[in-house]
Amino acid sequence: MTFLAQDPTLADFGRDPWWLVLGKVVFAFAFGLVATLLGVWFERRVVGFMQVRPGPNQVGPFGLLQTLADGLKMAFKEDILPKAADKVVYFFAPVISVVCAVTALSVIPFGPMVSIFGHRTPLQVTDVPVAVLLVLACSSMAVYGVVLAGWASGSTYPLLGGLRSGAQLISYEIALGLSVVAVFMTAGTMSTSGIVAEQGAGTQLSVFGTEIPAPGWYAILLFPSFVIFFISIVGETNRAPFDLPEAESELVAGFMTEYSSLKFALIMLSEYVAMVTMSAFTVTLFLGGWRAPWPITIWEGANSGWWPLLWFFGKVVALVFVFVWLRGTLPRMRYDQFMRLGWKVLLPINLVWLLVLGGLRSIEDWDTRSKLIAVGIPAGILLLATLFWPSRRPEPKPTVQEQVDNRPQGSFPLPPMDLQVPPSPRTRRVVAEREPANIAAAPDSQEV
């Protein structure tokens, strides 16, 4: 692999003094908390804009302190413990979800090598040769918090929500893992810093005899994997339209029905931290990580110093906006539709794409990036067309007369379609007050 001068390698980790490591850990934890506070405000403002209403705008400038006020309100609410709950598991279940979501941020690269008080260090807490597997493990462990929260509540609806979450994780974890396999095959490493460095490796693509820079982001080279991965993380984080474990119309509030006060706040915190973490993970794997997008890359200093931190946060905010956009526009799917999408659509397509990708890598007389661009983009467009193409044309709704004519023989008799409903007593009184002359002339005033 070819790394640029500012790209960190595995050898650059483990050499920092203790105070610098502690500062990185605090920064990653603060990033998760602040992203949650701003994420709730951002979601309410964006959804309000989509629904033509202001959203939170009273507490603080632009309503920025509304989320903080809501958090303080939840902290001072009464903490209710159900009588049938398992007290130990009931207490630790929200903690498991929060810890797993925050731990995954430890291997996310926020930027390149920088100088902090004279020490050259990468903007990343740590990195290991299997860092991507660590994020997948944290994502898989987070479901234990949801399942245990539903089971320990001692109630029916939370239990159903927890079971739904377990089935949902199993269904979409496979498609998510296979999408990451495509990144392994292309980058040749499982290190998050190495994957970011590989996406910045410059190559030239020959088009009609003209050499042009080839795009390095895996969202372009591995477009089908990117589409399947993003759909899978939406289902993995229980976000709409895949928020079936907490479907209000079916399960009251799902697995969190019996929670209140700070425990409820921890569950909300884990959801938004997981959303930000998976967005950062998507940026790392498919969107070049902390590298600047084109045309900012024309500037030579775009990918050095502290500027990459800005590009990284911008990409994360863009993906969080997509999460909010989906929630504000799409209705919740039925459970059978959701499971069918994961097992019968995403999983087979992912397996076929991995087979095609392995065949492309076996061709030696053709540049790998050229092959991926020539095949991956059309395959991704075909995948989107397959997912969103209408399955069948809706049949026209029969008229009332056609419904009457097609009723089965021997069914209950139907009244004639021109049946006149007799007026109500109130209508008769109104008519009597307005037309006394007609009533007096009528032979029977009761029949008006």
Automatic annotation (TrEMBL):
Subunit structure and binding partners: NDH-1 is composed of 14 different subunits. Subunits NuoA, H, J, K, L, M, N constitute the membrane sector of the complex.
Gene Ontology process terms (BP): aerobic respiration
Transmembrane segments: 18-42, 88-110, 130-153, 174-196, 216-235, 264-286, 306-326, 338-360, 372-389
Region (Disordered): 395-448
Membrane topology of the entry: Multi-pass membrane protein
PANTHER family, per database record: NADH DEHYDROGENASE SUBUNIT 1, NADH-UBIQUINONE OXIDOREDUCTASE CHAIN 1
Family the UniProt entry places it in: Belongs to the complex I subunit 1 family.
Gene: nuoH
Biased composition (Polar residues): 400-409
Protein name: NADH-quinone oxidoreductase subunit H
UniProt xrefs under Pfam families: NADHdh
Translocase keyword on record: yes
